[in-house]
Amino acid sequence: MLFRSYAKYFSTNATVSDLYQSVLGITTDLGAVGKDDYTGNGVAKVSADNLPEFAHCWDTDEITKAPTCTETGIRLRESFRYNIRIEEVIPATSHHWNAGTIVQYPSYVATGQKVYHCIICNETKTVTIPKLSPLPLKLAYKLSSKTYTGKPISFPLNVPNGCTVIYRNNTNVGKASVTIIGHEKYIGTNVFYFNIVPRKTKITTSSNKKSKKLAIKYAKIKETSKYQIFFSTNSKFTKNKKTVNTSKTSYTLSHCKKGKTYYVKVRSYKVVQGKKHYSAYSVVKKIKIRK
User: Which residue in 125, 184, 131 sits closest to 159, CA to CA?
Assistant: First the structure.
């Protein structure tokens, strides 16, 4: 309930009951109220519900102290006819903020700031803008096999800015990996695998010096000691095919058919953790059996 302060300048012998009864026309029992209902200079507090009709007929109605955004104001009303003086409290207006200006945009690692100005008192307030929410790192690569070089193998990848790229087991023949760790905008870790295979060998000699025999020699590969040889009577290696696995760098195929042309190719391979890693094929050699 809203209370207003009413001040009547009456004699020091007057009582609050006199004020209520003779001036305001209100009969009330102040016995239960006590002296706190008035002050020594004759200020009495009454409810706005008890205002008589003359409350709307003021000789003076002015704001003596304007309210601000944070402080209350005072409105003075006086009735000379009834010798009434009222000081009404005007509530603070509270701030009226503008749309605000971003002075620092947020990033994925730092918060931002937005400054608001009150259009009434020009007071400012700064609001923190939360950091941007990072996205999960989801990359897709199909990595092809790489040929052994004796040195760590790496290659360019199209990764988001700031991401960390780490290669592991990328020197020797076998299964290697590349790990990409997200940064700032992206979070998470993606791991991709690729194979390192031996270098391909080269057939150095191919001959038919003995009857129905085809002899070949091929270059030794440092990083492995195993080779696979393919023989066939057609260039697509679909007819009369024969496959030989060996650790030697030469081989002689017996029981060849005289007059037939044979095709041969070789590849090296290495077994790592139970898996064979094959090199590319050598250049195909064509030999006609004349003996």
Answer: 184
pLDDT of residue 56: 52
What is the DSSP pairing of strand 261-272 with strand 242-246?
A: unpaired
Mean pLDDT of 52-73: 80
Residue 156 has a pLDDT of 93
Q: How many CB atoms lie within 10 A of CB 103?
A: 11
Q: Which residue has the tokens 């295979």?
A: 197
Closest CA to 232 of 167, 188, 287: 287
Angle of CA points 266, 267, 272, to nearest 5°: 150
Number of neighbours of residue 221 by Cβ within 10 angstroms: 22
Residue 89, both tokens: 């409290």
pTM of the model: 0.63
Helix and strand totals (H; E) in the chain: 1, 22
